[in-house]
């Protein structure tokens, strides 16, 4: 019996992940982004509590459209990470392990994070 020849290289661009895999990778990426952004956000918010002039400088900084866009990106990261984390906790509790349920909950996490980001971002813009 001969073994099948192994591929010499993987064609990474041609590999298509299922939606649960994409949600999992985005969960990890959003966690890293939130971890890196946390000191910056804490520094910015700490200045808002000290003096009126610091608060006005903070408001001027946050009113920049690029900063608002970055904050909306962080809002998406927070929402996606939270919703995907709840999904993974349920999977750890052996809830929703069936293939169709896992796919549907992954789609739900993906769509809910985007919709909530748009709604909350529009309210805060």
Automatic annotation (TrEMBL):
One of its GO terms (molecular function) is electron transfer activity. It comes from the Bacteria. The keyword Heme applies. Keywords: Heme, Iron, Membrane, Metal-binding, Transmembrane, Transmembrane helix. Heme binds at residue 81. Its main location: membrane. The heme is bound between the two transmembrane subunits. The keyword Cytoplasm does not apply. It is a multi-pass membrane protein. Part of an enzyme complex containing four subunits: a flavoprotein, an iron-sulfur protein, plus two membrane-anchoring proteins, SdhC and SdhD. The complex can form homotrimers. PANTHER family: SUCCINATE DEHYDROGENASE CYTOCHROME B560 SUBUNIT, SUCCINATE DEHYDROGENASE CYTOCHROME B560 SUBUNIT, MITOCHONDRIAL. This is Succinate dehydrogenase cytochrome b556 subunit.
